[in-house]
């Protein structure tokens, strides 16, 4: 049963020493009650209190990492059913499935495809995070060799060892244990042998059963065998079942504190048709999957899934923003044009991308408007003639250019008169309303 913040507070040392990173024991207790902190952060709590609190303060959905290093995939730790309630914490990992009967050249090519999948979108690095190596050969030596080859060619990718036969998987798990792979999959039939392998190598497992009832019994069994880090595979066979099972599992964990389903979820969405597969993958990302397994990683599909994932896992309470400063694009000189915009990330990346495309050396002054886009900032009174003037003068932006000319976004052309009055000696030019017209606009200036 979950404890309230006040109940937890009674068990803490009450010295307000701040070692846990919170100003008071009460503040720490409140965070523990929300599942947003770990009891281990308080070094002075008694062993007795720790054991009482350990279970009660554990996050409702167990949190752990797959893989190691900077690019380890964090899973679980989610606290809400809906993103607007607070935020979703750990983005869905995308895993490419490869089969161990491929030639070495083909396996290497697939692994390198994953290793090179990273793109930059609105300032965030997005990539295919993991590779699932599926055993179809049923040959332990062949499987181990395939796993080692993939691990070698994609050194940062998390590894999922996709094999249900404990005698076949064991060597491969040992070979890459340092990479903390995920054993996929443990069933009621192989649970004892697989749990032994997982324990011996300190790696997580996927518990796989047909339906949530059987799955709950299986996770309890696996936990009883000494394996704590478990991922759920519910047996969902289509989009409808993915939504139903994933939602029921999360609701049981969050709303009913039902521990047997308090784990991250994996959805294998492999389909014959690539577009159909991408659609099912998007459903799983939207509805609580911590890992999805796909059959191919074409660029169009990656981009679609990265975008869905990024949208869902962006904190809705924190506007995405970039630093306020003058950005130099295409190696400008003091004679280059100076444009201005706001610091909403999406605005910045679209505008700077179009300036880059134009190949015209330019400067882009980005003004802090609390992460709002141009029109919203203007409507909120944060991108006004007075504030723009203050920004230009306080940052001595005029010193960077020979001709005092400022190019305004066309959306706020209405500000030009007031700006000319306030920014003495400056010429205000009205730029395009839409960013995609920027290259033509800049080139036409000669
Ligand atoms: Fe209180 Fe422990 Fe945090 Fe110190 S570290 S403020 S004793 S909860």
Quick rundown:
The chain has 446 residues and is α/β, with parallel strands linked by helices.
Strand content: 15-25%
Q: Helical residue percent?
A: 25-40%
Q: Given the structure, what is the number of helices?
A: 16
* Widest β-sheet, arrangement of strands: 10-9-8-7-6-3-12-11
Which molecules are bound besides the chains?
Answer: iron/sulfur cluster
Mean pLDDT: 93
* Category from helices, strands and their pairing: alpha/beta
Point out poorly predicted stretches.
Answer: none
Roughly how many Å is the radius of gyration? 27 Å
What is the total tally of β strands?
A: 17
Q: How far is the N terminus from the C terminus?
A: 71 Å
Main beta-sheet strand count, sense and barrel state = 8 strands, parallel
Shape: globular
Report on the structure:
With 446 residues, the chain is α/β, with parallel strands linked by helices. The chain has 16 helices and 17 strands. The termini are far apart. The relative contact order is 0.08. The mean pLDDT is 93. The structure holds iron/sulfur cluster (SF4). Iron/sulfur cluster (SF4) binds next to helix 2.
